[in-house]
Design brief:
The complex is a heterodimer of chains A (about 325) and B (about 290). Chain A has about 325 residues and is mainly alpha-helical. Chain A is built from 16 helices and 2 strands. In chain A, strands 1-2 form a two-stranded antiparallel sheet. In chain A, helix 3 runs parallel beside helix 8 and helix 8 crosses helix 9. The radius of gyration of chain A is 22 Å and the shape is globular. The relative contact order of chain B is 0.20. In chain B, helix 1 packs antiparallel against helix 10, helix 2 crosses helix 9 and helix 5 crosses helix 6. Chain B is globular and about 55 Å long. Chain B starts with a helix and ends in an 11-residue tail after the last helix. By secondary structure, chain B is mostly helical. The longest helix of chain B has about 30 residues. Chain B has 11 helices and 2 strands, in the order ααααββααααααα. Helix content of chain B is about 75%, strand content about 5%. The chains are: A mainly alpha (about 325), B mainly alpha (about 290).
Chain lengths: ~325, ~290
């Protein structure tokens, strides 16, 4: 019972998400929400390395694209069975992530951000210029939808929605356990001070690498889901602008919070999609919003709510203390 | 031989532009330790202001360039006051995110005002000159000459004036500079103004041989980062030398390897350097 009570917010989210397709026949809404769930998975990756471990990686659109293109190329050109290609796509991204991380994490702070930004750009240039493999500007067309698992097929929008939701739930549960575990606290220790973390015996390089590799895995997973959901891939998904979009979702929702990626991605993806004119000029609002948030609410919406709750609880407790102390006073009289 | 000479001159032109952009970036980094991702957007705004002053107001090229310096310098100062100054006690990750926010804002704003079309800038310097077996437009000569003049002016300013010395002092040792009674706010504002001005000059002289469009700053800023890592973050001579190194390697790489991948040279160079030396070349002592 207490477990349900402790996780009631997550369960309410899950319940709403499970029921959502029953209330709308609009395929377009379902499409948008599914897309936002896919991005959420990628943003969770960014949150792990950026929010918890404190290393701002600006290559995540690149890893997202590696996952997406791996799946696309394996299924379209190499005719690999879908789910095998899916696993391979995640694996390829993770391996690339491992080698990039091995080198990138030797650099610190600004160097790391610049280095990963450049890695992201190299990935973009390679996808863009390597016509024979990736289709270059023309893109990659005709990525198949997920092939059926037993009796369940993934042709309809609803079934795709539930598939993505299932992955999102898995990622969420994984992130919850990870961040609440000792490993999660190790990451936070590294974020707060790498030197201090080292002095208490944390192998910071290894921890950062594991965190980075998991984060690239999540980006690759999201990319693979994206490829078979949208079924068309263009090089622009690997462009730095995509990384900046992901960063916006993360900052608005709350960097370094468990619910942040969920809230931020859902809000921004649905808002930009429902206001079509926003598509092109969204950054006119989100750019200044990013600046505003890092100055006044560096932990975004979720962080803001947590702060407000904590303050309220603190006040309540103080009030209780005061009333109890006055009552004992009266009693003494 | 002619091809080589021609390519070397091309390298000199590209390198001059890179150096100017990297100089602005490195000055800001030296003072405030902010990797200003929005610097590329300043460069882009500089190109637009020059172009638009010329086409809509009909002002001559150099006047337009001067206007551009003032406008972009002003925007840079505003950025410092409204954003980076507020974030001076925040963790470094916040500066980067704020800079990205500014970059996105400026780019979209320019796109909203002037559209996303590629525009060309025509200047009075489109004559063709031949010397030493190479053929170039006068605009390219102007780029090299202007860049060198600006660098000399900047050098004299930093070395011979009190306020220039204050900038150097602050980048060498913040606390030490404060003890000397240096006004940190004034130095920071001035540095941002110079940085913006340099970006405006770079964009104004290079736009006639390239094009003006909202995304024109993307590659330039990334390359400028590569340059200041090569040259040492915060180092003024490093930015100049790094700029020319990159300019030459790109023009030679485009000729002798492949022009498709000439943009990638910078990044491969960076990845190689940071792989071997994670602190960057010429890193100053211990941390």
């Amino acid at each position: 019972m207490s477990m349900i009570k402790r996780n009631r917010i997550a369960l309410i989210f899950l319940l709403v998400a499970l029921m959502a397709p029953l209330f709308t026949d609009n395929q377009y809404y379902l499409y948008i929400v599914t897309l936002s769930f896919i991005w959420t998975i990628a943003v969770y990756g960014m949150n792990l390395i950026g929010g918890y471990t404190g290393q701002l990686s600006l290559a995540h659109a690149g890893f997202f694209a590696i996952g997406a293109y791996s799946l696309g190329l394996l299924t379209v050109d190499a005719n690999v069975p879908y789910w095998f290609a899916f696993v391979l796509a995640c694996l390829i991204t993770t391996v690339v992530g491992f080698f990039v991380g091995l080198i990138a994490l030797r650099t610190k702070e600004h160097f790391f951000a610049i280095y990963t930004l450049c890695v992201g750009y190299i990935i973009y240039l390679v996808i863009y210029q390597w016509d024979e493999l990736t289709g270059g500007v023309r893109g990659l067309i005709g990525v198949p939808p997920p092939s059926p698992i037993g009796p369940i097929s993934f042709e309809s929008a609803e079934s795709n929605y539930y598939l993505v939701l299932a992955f999102l739930v898995l990622v969420f549960v994984f992130m919850k356990f990870l961040t609440e575990s000792l490993i999660g606290r190790t990451y936070v220790a590294i974020r707060n001070s790498e030197e201090l973390a080292q002095t208490i015996g944390i192998n910071t390089m290894r921890q950062k690498l594991v965190s980075f590799v998991i984060s690239t895995f999540l980006a690759g997973l999201a990319g693979a889901l994206y490829a078979s959901f949208v079924r068309f891939l263009g090089p622009e998904i690997s462009y730095t602008m995509t990384t900046f979009d992901m960063l916006t979702y993360l900052i608005v929702g709350g960097i370094g919070t468990l619910y942040g990626p969920l809230v931020g991605t859902f809000l921004i993806v649905t808002i930009t999609q429902s206001l079509q004119f926003m598509e092109e000029y969204r950054m006119l609002i989100f750019g200044p919003l990013l600046v505003f948030l890092v100055i006044f609410y560096p932990r975004g919406i979720v962080g803001g709510i947590q702060m407000w709750k904590a303050k309220r609880q603190f006040k309540k407790r103080q009030k209780m203390k005061r009333t109890s102390s006055t009552s004992t006073h009266e009693g003494g009289d | 031989m002619d091809v080589l000479a021609q390519q070397l001159f091309n390298g000199l032109t590209i390198g001059s532009v890179y150096s100017l952009v990297a100089l602005g970036l490195t000055l800001v980094y030296g003072i405030l330790h902010i990797p200003n991702f929005a610097h590329g957007a300043l460069y882009m705004v500089g190109g637009y202001v020059t172009l638009m002053t010329m086409t809509t107001l009909g002002l001559p090229y150099f006047v337009a360039m001067f206007m551009s310096i003032l406008v972009v310098g002003g925007i840079a100062v505003l950025m410092e006051r409204l954003v980076f100054h507020q974030l001076r006690h925040s963790p470094p990750i916040h500066d980067k995110i704020a800079a990205i926010g500014l970059l996105l804002f400026l780019e979209t704003l320019v796109q909203l005002i002037w559209g996303a079309d590629y525009r060309s800038m025509t200047t009075p310097f489109d004559d063709i000159v031949s010397f030493l077996g190479i053929t170039v437009t006068t605009q390219r000569i102007l780029i090299v000459v202007a860049a060198v003049l600006v660098m000399i002016a900047l050098h004299l300013f930093l070395k011979k004036t009190m306020i220039g010395a204050a900038i150097i002092a602050m980048s060498q040792n913040r606390e030490g500079a404060f003890l000397q009674g240096i006004n940190a706010n004034r130095v920071a504002m001035l540095t941002f103004f110079i940085s913006g001005g340099l970006a405006a000059i770079a964009a104004s002289i290079s736009s006639p041989i390239n094009l003006v469009y909202p995304g024109m700053g993307h590659l330039v800023i990334l390359k400028a980062f590569v340059i200041i890592i090569i040259g040492g973050m915060g180092s003024v001579p490093g930015a100049i030398i790094g700029g020319y190194i990159l300019g030459f390697s790109e023009s030679l790489g485009a000729t002798f390897i492949s022009s498709d991948y000439s943009d990638i040279i910078a990044f491969v160079l960076l990845v190689a350097i940071l792989t071997v030396k994670p602190q960057g070349l010429f890193a100053k002592g211990a941390h």
